[in-house]
Amino acid sequence: MQPNKITSSVMIIGTALFAMTIIAIVPGSSAISCWECNSETNRHCFDVEAGAVENISKIEPCFREMYKECSLADGQQPFCRTQEQTIQGKKRVIRSCAHERASEDCYATKTPSVHTKVCQCFTDGCNSSGSLFANTIMIVIVTITGMLVVFN
């Protein structure tokens, strides 16, 4: 293969990876559905499984009732949020729809009696117990791969 054809192929692949990353990061205009629960009032909130949304009709009703479509608020696109809290040694999980984004996808706060980790995500059901960081990791991997291909 000639050097120009290799460079051209690398640029096409790099551009495609970059486009896929942007599509994965930017939320669509359609409604999103998220898990909404609080383990303080619903013990099943700890156990929401990643991938359950693909077979939502087959999961137990106690889980199905926690999966809800989010609504727009003040014209802002909704997304999913998970809060993991430890309050005076007691663990709690809160999964919800949200509308005001944080500057980072995940952050933590800590006081002497309350430790909180909050993560936001932008695809249907992404705030399950197993997928909290999977989307973020995938986006980082695709972005780095794309950058390596384009800039090498």
UniProtKB/TrEMBL annotation:
SUPFAM superfamilies named in the record: Snake toxin-like
Keywords on record: Glycoprotein, Membrane, Signal, Transmembrane, Transmembrane helix
Signal peptide region: 1-31
One Pfam family from the record: QVR
Residues that span the membrane, as ranges: 132-151
Keyword Transmembrane among UniProt keywords: yes
One biological process term in Gene Ontology: sleep
Domain of life where this protein originates: Eukaryota
PANTHER family: ATILLA, ISOFORM B-RELATED-RELATED, PROTEIN QUIVER
Protein name: Protein sleepless
The organism of origin for this protein: Blomia tropicalis (Mite)
